[in-house]
């Protein structure tokens, strides 16, 4: 049967373990019998299994650990001279007679450990002898594990400050020299492992090597634990020797791992004081070494040190840490010409993170890092690598997260240049990050210059950077983006009115380039922000001469131009609403011509642009509601606008008024007003559906009776509107009867009844109890008619209205007397 490689190794490992157990058993018997000769013989046979070259490092480690456990027991036996009767000096010589070098050196290290503890010879001499003797094994795996054993048994016997093994001539430098020598040899053996097999198994060998990295790295950990290794020793001896070995080994795996070991095991203050030396080694590493990870971890370590120790900040300034790190990163990027762009950007992200943690007040440092990144990206096409784009977003997000203030980022001159390196989609992502930061921290951007910079940064959201991308917009994402821009506009504020007006002009300039899809989202917040300023300035006005203070008129000019642009991009309903809002603001400022102009534009939009029947109904009700609240208009302007809304009623009543003057109609009403109203469309009567016509006409009745405005109490016109509504409601019933064979619900009649009751209560002399009584009887008869479609909603509506009348009758007093004649 032919075994595979793995099965072969398993078989050899099992045989090796069995041999170790067998010889260990007889070694234990010899130890119990205090038989030194047999104990050495059996232990040598046991350790001979470590001479194998058939096992992978992983399986060899299993064999090594079993042998290590047995050697611990043998060491305990060597310590007790009374058991074996041989002095430790003689024993040290005796074990060197073992036939094979692997068992001989393992036994020599074991006895050497006891020799040092006995203090019969200087620890320095014994350790030096042991580390030199280990040169006898040059096989990478066998030699690496042998030196690992030496490091393990000597760890507690190094000549450190206060050590019990410290002699008159022994110093910490002896311990340092021992560890460094052992580290150097172990690293050489580890590097040579890659050449121990054919090329086709190189990947497997590299994986096996990476599993053994800790064996080498533990030497550096031991060095860091020696208390006598102060900054001077580290700077002058330890670091130069370690870096020399790292650079000279020219092995990617070893260089990357050992550089990381240095950063992780030695103190932060040592790194800070030896920064130049450590950074100087980075450009000398192999081009394939992941230097960005090494430097990133170093900067992260130093950043955490600065964050946890405020007293260390002067040290950073003293050693010029930022300048050295910045220079080192530049050299690394320049040296490693094949470094991918994502690697270079990652280095700048780490440097920026370091700067923000250590020197947050130095915005010039932050801008310098951004400038270096721009320099690296200049002349190259826009980034397509997803990882690189994420790194750029991280780079630009770091200042926002640190300062929690978008205004600070706006002062960085290179910030916009970095954003220009992004493709359109990532530019949008970054723009959303900027807006979310501003909203999260409730940042107020208060100057036109800063608003200009800000809107340049988020231009990917407020206009199409790429004409070909218009059809690819996701509707939900697009709405979310534009709503974010709208919220941002509301956050622009300055107490100074002149500066605020400048801000509005800057915002208008940018959002007007947004196109028809964006304007409905971005124009309204600008309008309402400007109206907020108008109300702040309410009562101020005057001619604009020189540099006089901002007046509402100036702002209304801006608003008029802005809404006009919106009405031209297929958003007439929204533009109409905004015109009405502006008209109300002008009313509050007592600017009659301005308010009249806004109403006129609203009517023009209604006539020429609003085509949908539902939109027409809504728009007409909005116009009526807004007009009712206006108190700035003189008689002529108010009549003109009212005639526009009431349409055919206006025409009818204008004729009556001219021929038969009425006390409710102001004397200033003229024939010219009649001609003006006649020229406008009869809006209420032109609605397509009869119910819509009816509701629009009775809504117009409120234009002629406003409680809080003197002189606008025209009961006769109110009655005309209500009668016209009744005729339209009756026509709707007739049409339903002719087309469907039955009348529709009487809801419209009940609604008109409620209008009668409203004006009756308000004291309109034209609305009498008899008219209300007749309307109630009309509704009752209609509901009892066989041709009327039963409708629970209409019935409940009428019942509720009747209960209201009964309640008013029961109240007593003036109102009770008023409602008394009505029988229900």
Automatic annotation (TrEMBL):
**What is the protein's major site of localization?**
cytoplasm
Q: Where in the cell is it found?
A: Cytoplasm; Endosome membrane; Golgi apparatus, trans-Golgi network membrane; Prevacuolar compartment membrane
Keyword Protein transport among record annotations: yes
Q: Which Pfam families does this UniProt record tie to the protein? A: Vps35
Q: Name one GO biological process term.
A: intracellular protein transport
Q: What UniProt keywords are attached to this protein's entry?
A: Cytoplasm, Endosome, Golgi apparatus, Membrane, Protein transport, Transport
InterPro entries cross-referenced by the UniProt entry: Vps35, Vps35_C
Similarity comment: Belongs to the VPS35 family.
Tell me the PANTHER family matching this sequence: VACUOLAR PROTEIN SORTING-ASSOCIATED PROTEIN 35B (PTHR11099:SF6), VACUOLAR SORTING PROTEIN 35 (PTHR11099)
Protein name, please? Answer: Vacuolar protein sorting-associated protein 35
């Amino acid at each position: 049967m032919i075994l595979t490689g793995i099965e072969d190794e398993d078989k050899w490992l099992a045989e090796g373990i069995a041999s170790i157990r067998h010889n260990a058993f007889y070694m234990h018997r010899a130890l119990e019998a205090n038989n030194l000769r047999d104990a050495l013989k059996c232990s040598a046979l046991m350790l001979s299994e470590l001479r194998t070259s058939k096992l992978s490092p992983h399986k060899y480690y299993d064999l090594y650990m079993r042998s290590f456990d047995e050697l611990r027991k043998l060491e305990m036996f060597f310590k007790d001279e009374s058991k074996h009767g041989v002095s430790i000096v003689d024993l040290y010589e005796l074990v060197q007679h073992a036939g094979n070098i692997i068992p001989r050196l393992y036994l020599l290290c074991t006895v050497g450990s006891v020799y040092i503890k006995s203090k019969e010879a200087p620890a320095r001499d014994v350790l030096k002898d042991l580390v030199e003797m280990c040169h006898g094994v040059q096989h990478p795996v066998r030699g690496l594990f042998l030196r690992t054993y030496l490091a393990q048994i000597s760890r507690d016997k190094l000549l450190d400050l206060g050590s019990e093994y410290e002699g008159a001539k022994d110093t910490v430098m002896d311990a340092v020299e021992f560890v460094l020598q052992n580290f150097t040899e172990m690293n050489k053996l580890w590097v040579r492992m890659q050449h121990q097999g054919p090329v086709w198994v190189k990947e497997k060998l590299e994986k096996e090597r990476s599993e053994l990295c800790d064996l080498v790295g533990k030497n550096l950990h031991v060095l860091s634990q020696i208390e006598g290794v102060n900054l001077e020793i580290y700077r002058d001896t330890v670091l130069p020797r370690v870096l020399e070995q790292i650079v000279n080994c020219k092995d990617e795996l070893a260089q990357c791992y050992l550089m990381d070991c240095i950063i992780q095991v030695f103190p932060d203050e040592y790194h800070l004081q030896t920064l130049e030396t450590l950074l100087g080694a980075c450009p000398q590493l192999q081009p394939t070494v992941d230097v960005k990870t090494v430097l990133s971890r170093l900067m992260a370590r130093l950043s955490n040190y600065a964050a946890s120790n405020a007293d260390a900040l002067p040290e950073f300034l003293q050693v010029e840490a930022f300048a050295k790190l910045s220079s080192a990163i530049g050299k690394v990027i320049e040296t490693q010409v094949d470094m991918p762009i994502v690697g270079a950007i990652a280095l700048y992200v780490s440097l920026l993170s370091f700067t923000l943690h250590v020197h947050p007040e130095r915005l010039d440092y932050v801008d310098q890092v951004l400038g270096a990144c721009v320099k690296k990206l200049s002349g190259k096409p826009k980034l397509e690598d997803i990882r690189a784009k994420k790194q750029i977003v991280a780079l630009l997000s770091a200042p926002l997260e640190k300062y929690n203030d978008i205004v600070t980022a706006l002062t960085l001159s290179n910030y916009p240049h970095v954003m220009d390196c992004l493709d359109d989609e990532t530019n949008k992502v970054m723009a959303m990050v900027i807006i979310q930061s501003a909203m999260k921290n409730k940042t107020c951007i208060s100057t036109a210059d800063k608003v200009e910079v800000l809107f340049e940064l988020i231009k990917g959201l407020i206009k199409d950077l790429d004409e070909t991308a218009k059809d690819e917009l996701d509707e939900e994402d697009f709405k979310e983006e534009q709503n974010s821009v709208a919220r941002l506009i509301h956050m622009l504020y300055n107490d100074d009115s002149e500066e605020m007006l400048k801000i509005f002009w800057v915002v208008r300039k940018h959002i007007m380039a947004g196109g028809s899809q964006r304007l409905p989202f971005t124009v309204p917040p600008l309008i309402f922000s400007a109206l907020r300023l108008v109300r702040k300035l309410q009562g101020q006005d005057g001619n604009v001469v020189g540099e006089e203070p901002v007046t509402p008129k100036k702002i209304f000019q801006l608003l008029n131009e802005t809404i006009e642009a919106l009405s031209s991009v297929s958003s007439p309903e929204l533009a109409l609403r905004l015109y009405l809002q502006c008209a109300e603001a002008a009313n509050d400022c007592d600017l009659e011509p301005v308010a009249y102009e806004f109403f006129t534009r609203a009517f023009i939009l209604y006539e020429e642009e609003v085509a949908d029947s539902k939109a027409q109904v809504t728009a007409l009700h909005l116009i009526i509601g807004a007009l009712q609240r206006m108190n700035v208009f003189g008689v002529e302007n108010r009549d003109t606008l009212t005639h526009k809304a009431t349409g055919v009623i206006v025409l009818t009543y204008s004729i009556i008024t001219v021929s038969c003057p009425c006390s409710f109609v102001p004397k200033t009403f003229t024939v010219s007003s009649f001609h003006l109203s006649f020229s406008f469309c009869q809006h209420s009567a032109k609605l397509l559906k009869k119910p819509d016509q009816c509701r629009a006409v009775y809504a117009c009745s409120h234009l002629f009776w406003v409680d809080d405005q003197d002189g606008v109490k025209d009961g006769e016109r109110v009655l005309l509107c209500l009668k016209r509504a009744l005729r339209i409601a009756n026509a709707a019933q007739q049409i339903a009867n002719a087309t469907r064979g039955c009348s529709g619900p009487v809801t419209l009649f009940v609604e008109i009844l409620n209008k009668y009751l409203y004006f009756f209560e308000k004291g309109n002399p034209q609305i009498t109890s008899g008219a209300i009584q007749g309307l109630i009887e009309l509704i009752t008869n209609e509901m009892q008619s066989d041709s009327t479609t039963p409708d629970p909603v209409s019935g409940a509506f009428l019942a509720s209205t009747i209960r209201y009348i009964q309640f008013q009758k029961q109240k007593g007093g003036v109102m009770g007397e008023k409602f008394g004649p009505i029988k229900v």
